[in-house]
C-alpha cells in the first residue's frame, strides 16, 4: 500500500507541469508603495480580527477549565451532600457536562472570530 501510494505521488508530481517565474527587482520596487498603501488600509481590519480571535481564545480556555467542573460537581454531590454542597454540586455537574459541547462550538467558530466577526456571548 505504501509503495503504490509513493509511486502514485511520484508519477503525479512528474505529470503536473510546474512553472516557476522570477520576479524582477524593478517590479518589486514599483509595487512596494502599492503594497504599503494596501497594508495601511488593511491594518485596522487585521487588528480587529486579532483582537476578536484573542477574546475567542479566552472563551476556549474558559471552556477547557469548565470541563473540570464535572468531576468536581460529582464529588460535591456524592461527598458533600451531608454538609450542604448538594445544590452547588448539581450546578457544577450540569455546567461541566455542557462544557465539552461549548468547547467544540467555540473551536468551530474560531476561524469566524479571526475574521473580526463577533460570535456572540461573553463570559
Task: Give your account of this protein's structure.
The protein is mainly α. The protein is built from four helices and no strands. The protein has helices at about 1-15, 25-65, 70-80, 85-115. Helix 2 (about 25-65) packs antiparallel against helix 4 (about 85-115) and helix 3 (about 70-80) packs antiparallel against helix 4 (about 85-115). It is elongated. The protein starts with a helix and ends in a 9-residue tail after the last helix.
Question: Summed up, what is this model?
Answer:
The chain is 79% helix and 0% strand. With 123 residues, it is mainly α. Helix 2 packs antiparallel against helix 4 and helix 3 runs antiparallel to helix 4.
Write the topology of this structure.
Layout: H1 2-15, H2 25-66, H3 69-80, H4 86-114
Number of helices: 4
Strand content: under 5%
Shape: elongated
* Strand/helix succession: HHHH
Largest sheet: none
Gyration radius (Cα, Å) is 26 Å
Mean pLDDT: 86
SS-based structural class?
mainly alpha
Query: Based on DSSP secondary structure assignment, what is the total number of beta strands?
Result: 0
* Termini Cα gap: 50 Å
Helix content: over 70%
Poorly predicted runs of 5 or more residues: none
Summary tags:
mainly alpha
